[in-house]
Amino acid sequence: GENVEQHPSTLSVQEGDSAVIKCTYSDSASNYFPWYKQELGKGPQLIIDIRSNVGEKKDQRIAVTLNKTAKHFSLHITETQPEDSAVYFCAANPGPEYGNKLVFGAGTILRVKS
Amino acid sequence: TAGITQAPTSQILAAGRSMTLRCTQDMRHNAMYWYRQDLGLGLRLIHYSNTAGTTGKGEVPDGYSVSRANTDDFPLTLASAVPSQTSVYFCASSLTGSVGGEQFFGPGTRLTVL
User: Fold this and answer.
1) Which residues in chain A are contacts of B103 at CB distance < 8 A?
2) Which pLDDT score is estimated for B1?
3) Are the C-beta atoms of residues A48 and A35 closer than 8 Å to each other?
4) Which residues of chain B lie closer than 8 angstroms to A41, CB-CB?
5) Alpha carbon A22 to chain centroid, angstroms
6) CA nearest to B90 within chain A
7) Which residue is closest to A49 within chain B, CA to CA?
């Protein structure tokens, strides 16, 4: 089955700097890759996603890149702010036969120091 | 709009006892999911339902059961709790069970089994 690995497990950056979180997946049939943000005491919330027919997607300060050949995808946050501090999860959908089921990475705790 | 609600917020349960975690959504979403979140393991899918009247097993279904009698409710039952079921449980829903549908998460239930 699909396996998603996420690195680093924790990341501390200075306010204004960029943050990058990387994930690898094992199943080449995976075709949908969302990123979720979880604030303390809350459930995860979708912040951006990318499908396998696109190499990059951007939404204001956040962007996601996908390398299908290498089977990895990354989340980039620019000009980080204290409110970006949270746990971030990457996920992969193993393919259409799996419906909308997701396999999640272990998460990255991002701390933005002001 | 409430979105997804979960009850209880937290619970301490003696090993061997049964418990039902409740999940209700008011978005008329067809698909619903139960995940458990453990430190270092991310979110793992327990059971899912693509539409009322149907359910399916996720990655870690053992020891759990679900039912989907109507669109809005998706209860998760632990028939005989064990300490390894200590976790934070999240319910989620998406408009459809097809690939790429945003999953909306509830606030979670923190369960401790002693």
Assistant:
1) 34, 46, 100, 102
2) 58
3) yes
4) 107
5) 7
6) A43
7) B100
Using alpha carbons only, what angle is made at residue A36 by residues B105 and A18, rounded to the nearest 5 degrees? Answer: 150
Does the pLDDT of residue A96 top 80, yes or no? no
CB contact under 8 A, A101 and B4: no
* Distance from the Cα of residue A63 to its chain's centroid: 9
For A98, phi then psi, to 5°, come to: -95, 10
Percent of chain A with pLDDT over 90: 88
pLDDT in tens, B40-86: 889 999 999 999 999 999 999 999 999 999 999 999 999 999 999 99
The Cα–Cα gap between B18 and A50 comes to 40
